[in-house]
Amino acid sequence: MKRRILLIDDETFLLKVLLVRLKHWGFDALGAENGPDGFLIIRQNKPDLIILDKEMPGMNGEDVVRLVRRDPSLKQIPIIMISADVENIEACAKACGIAHYLTKPCEPEDLLEMIQMQFAQSEHRENT
Amino acid sequence: MKPENPIGIRRSIATKLLKIVFSFYLLVAVSLTIGQMVMEYRYQKSSVEHDLKAIQQTYEKGLAIDLWQLDDESLSSIIEGMLKLPVVIGVSVRNARGVDVAIGGIIHHHGVRVGNVGQHINLLGLGKEVTTLYDEHHSDNNYVFTHEFPLSYVHGGKTDQLGRVTLYSNSSVVFQRVKLGFLLIVLNAILKTVALWFIFLYFSKKLLRKPLLSLASAVENLSLDNLDSVRVDVGTSGRNELKVIEDSFNSMIGNLRNSVMEWERATEALRESEMLRKRVFDSSRIPIVVMDAATCQYVDCNAAAVQVYRYASREDVVGKTPLAFSAPVQYDGTSSDIKALHYITEALEGRPVVFEWLHKRPDGELWDAEVHLLSFSVEGTTMLQFSLLDITDRKRAEEATTLLANAKNKFISVVSHELRSPLATIKEATSLVREEVLGPLNDEQKEMLEIAKSNINRLGRLVNNVLLYQKIDAGKMQYDFLENNINEIIQEAYRNTVLATPERKEDLVINLTPKLPQTRCDKDKIIQVLLNLISNGIKYSDHGPIVIETRLNAHEIEFSLRDAGQGIYPEEIENIFIPFSHGRGRKTGGTGLGLAICKEIILAHNGRIWVESERGKGSTFYFTLPI
Predict the structure, then answer these.
(1) Does A86 sit within 8 Å of B424, measured CB to CB?
(2) How do the domains of chain A map onto residue ranges?
(3) How far, in Å, CA of B428 to CA of B449, rounded?
(4) What's the ipTM?
(5) Pick the CATH number of A4-127 from 3.40.50.1970, 2.60.40.420, 3.40.50.720, 3.40.50.2300
């Protein structure tokens, strides 16, 4: 069964090309252009992994992470944060309890490596 | 100038001297006079005795004949004649049996004075004895002395002792003779004493009293104003004690005059210096105010201070406290009085204090000053000196600069972030196409997309470096200094380089000094420097060795990287570490910030970074890290 990944980013073009990339890699890729839409999809579709942009107008990446982590049925979903804010991404990820983050622009190989690592960790957790 | 006489003649030292000397002189004179008189008396007495002997010789024979012949009349006339002689006051003639046979005048009988008995002759010893005629009641105080001689008569070769004659004389006779002599002696003594007294008085006055009084008067009249005119002349000639005193005194005046001149010169110098100080103080363009630490009130200020405070005169400033010129609160929101107290306390502890202070003018206008505060002491009063530097313009400029710098940083940060997102999209989109995810490509299309990829990466690096440099420039770069081995860091940078550019692996020559001491550095930042320098070396030399070496100096480790490229133009060497200062020999692919970032990182490590280069022969980059 295909792994389902939700990508939330207000950059429409980036969202579009990354979805193509994820699908090319064989994932069931879903996309949302803002926080509320993204959170709705999370609740409805329970993705296996969420990739979200830190900066978004309105509800931003941090808010989405907080909502997900607060929901017991969702809080296990691994999250990768991406951001163009190289200065603050590390601190922000740490504050949200997220271990993995990437800065824009990132190498496709790095992204794939990180996704695979997250799934490996999830599988490991499920098995134990 | 006639010396005024402050001391009476009675108390004068000359009089005292006179009295002492004359007491002794009088004693000596009286003794000598008495002695002289005794001598005179003795002389006259012996003269009387001599006269008595002469009378003996004159009358001895006549008396002997009269006694032999019992001639009363003749004896009587002889005795009468003898009694008329001034030295003889009495005569007694005693026969061989010891009986007084003739007496006259004042005589003694058996040692007892019997007074003036008149003249009695009884040569035969008949009738009354002459002794019965003695007037025993007669007496006087005169001392009586006698001259006795025997009477003898020579006839037919034999000498008959007839009796003894006693001639009487007394002291009154001698006194009669010495009377004039005594008078002359006493007169002589008195005259000499009186004369001596006046002579002594005159000369003591002339030699002692006058000079001493003149000295006293000179001393009394001496003042700092007449040192030049006063000169003591005791009026003595020759070298004596007074002359010594005169010389000493004149020398003292001379010294005093010199001292006064010196003092006047010093006072003048002080006055000039004071005037100079005052002039400097008043004409100083730096506003200066002086405050009494005890009252916290200004006691003095210069014209510049009056001007900068925007008051009309010095009097408007003096008497006020510093708070009258201050804004109610300072830059950090602290109340001015608390802040002022803090600085004043610090200055009173002896430390010069420099701080910025927000002032207020009478019209409410605020102005900024850099205040230099220091304490000093004047005659036991502690003063505080405020030197003010109007930095309002500088402060405004600084604020503007800060605002501008903040705006610039914000701008750079925002721009960088805003560049990243589209860059990520472009990168991702072109990657998808280039990787033929969306369909096959021909070789030319692939090459074009490779070029696009390379430039997207370059743009990404540029954005990263701009952000990094901005961070360094804003002083926000954080360093994590730990003990590290530079050789290991170089090895790591080498491995990364080989991974990125395997085609130049053979050219990279690592020549490290073994067992280098640890150095405190931020490993990641130093790797960044090394990667920058190595990539520069690779970029600017298409081929040829790139030699990396380390060396141990006295207090530092020196790193060098030598390439065999074209080298740097001499005029460009100076600016090579300045941002965006690509040389004429620049190559594409750089961001223009690499070396500037390297320099900032090495400086943050207290190291040095420089380049040596010869055009056509390559360049060598050096940096050092302290150990």
Answers:
(1) no
(2) 4-127
(3) 12
(4) 0.84
(5) 3.40.50.2300
